[in-house]
């Protein structure tokens, strides 16, 4: 999975927690960094923060959905902000703070993993 957040401490903490749950995790600190990594090696799932400088999480979701090789990758968009999006560019929307069990439940549903 590809985990994207510009808050480095949070990114590293979540990556560690997910690795402890036996997930392979690649991290990116910006939407543009994530976009390049997804193009190089399409991930099974993307979890991205919304608020990031440059290419934000919503722009990343739109870019993934516009690419025929990446359009079916499940996406979890999470943020502490409240947003309204008219287009279905992500599969799940979570409001931070998120409990690990809640995140794992969404991941497992999207990856069809027990």
UniProtKB/TrEMBL annotation:
<protein>
    <submittedName>
        <fullName>Response regulator</fullName>
    </submittedName>
</protein>
<dbReference type="InterPro" id="IPR011006">
    <property type="entry name" value="CheY-like_superfamily"/>
</dbReference>
<dbReference type="InterPro" id="IPR050595">
    <property type="entry name" value="Bact_response_regulator"/>
</dbReference>
<dbReference type="GO" id="GO:0000160">
    <property type="term" value="P:phosphorelay signal transduction system"/>
</dbReference>
<dbReference type="InterPro" id="IPR001789">
    <property type="entry name" value="Sig_transdc_resp-reg_receiver"/>
</dbReference>
<feature type="modified residue" description="4-aspartylphosphate">
    <location>
        <position position="49"/>
    </location>
</feature>
<feature type="domain" description="Response regulatory">
    <location>
        <begin position="1"/>
        <end position="111"/>
    </location>
</feature>
<keyword id="KW-0597">Phosphoprotein</keyword>
<dbReference type="Pfam" id="PF00072">
    <property type="entry name" value="Response_reg"/>
</dbReference>
């Amino acid at each position: 999975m590809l985990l994207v957040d510009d808050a480095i401490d949070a990114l590293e903490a979540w990556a560690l927690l997910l690795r402890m749950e036996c997930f392979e995790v690649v991290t990116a600190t910006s939407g543009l960094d994530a976009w390049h990594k997804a193009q190089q090696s399409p991930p099974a799932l993307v979890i991205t923060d919304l608020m990031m400088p440059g290419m934000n999480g919503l722009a990343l979701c739109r870019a993934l959905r516009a690419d025929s090789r990446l359009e079916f990758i499940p996406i979890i968009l999470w943020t502490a902000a409240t947003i309204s999006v008219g287009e279905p560019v992500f599969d799940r929307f979570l409001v931070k703070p998120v409990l690990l069990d809640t995140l794992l439940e969404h991941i497992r549903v999207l990856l069809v993993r027990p």
